[in-house]
Amino acid sequence: MNDYVLFKMWGPHRLSLIRGHQLYVEQARKRLLSQFANMEAEAERASDEWLKKSSDRFDPDRHDPSEFYEAANDAGIEFYQLLSDMRDQTRLSVIAGMFHEWEKQLRDWLVREIQHWHQGDTPIAKVWSADFGKIADLLESFGWKIRSTDYFNALDACRLVVNVYKHGSGKSLDDLKATYPEYLEDRLGGSGLPGTLDLVDYTNLKVSDDQFQAFSDAIVAFWRDVPASVAGSEISKPPEWFKKAILGDRAVRS
Description:
- By secondary structure, the protein is mainly α.
- The protein has nine helices and two strands.
- Strands 1-2 form a two-stranded antiparallel ribbon.
- Helix 1 runs antiparallel to helix 3 (65-117), helix 3 (65-117) packs across helix 6 (150-167) and helix 6 runs antiparallel to helix 7 (171-179).
- The mean pLDDT is 92.
């Protein structure tokens, strides 16, 4: 390797990535998640509306008023639960969009930098198809110890959360249980029963607003931490998949 700069993060581009991400989160909160800010009041209105609609069925000679009020209360509780579920699904959808945009922007940056100094499509295709771990291997070959950072753990957790949200049961759910169980609501966790986490499935996926913010902060921290420049001499041991792709293109041209 030589001292030629292979990867460069220009200051204005870094700032643009961060601002774009922050705008996404800000507007998602303002235009989507804020709609769920008054669920208690909306549930009370739903209860009142149930009473209003059912009043013509009430016969004081045959009905107990308390039963009607109890049914109205049940209607309010049901409405609140439905809104709560919708809020949680909306938040997960926002998180999925946020993570996928970050991941695409990262791969796009890597590809554009590679195209400055390499002719051939093999490493480009490999960067787009590589899993999260392989991309992390490439970044660590820059001398960037990304896996030792707090934001990497948050991004890794976010990846698993998004996969479970999209696909349900599978390896990502197993990994989430084993590594980041705090994103799975264990409703029997305080019961004293053994092995309650084993009963948890993808329907228990739940991300709080604070956890959503932590994911967002991790993306900002990541972009701020991307090395400003990486020379060839700084890449001591590129991952085999990347090295093989580069050498394969060169062999075809020679």
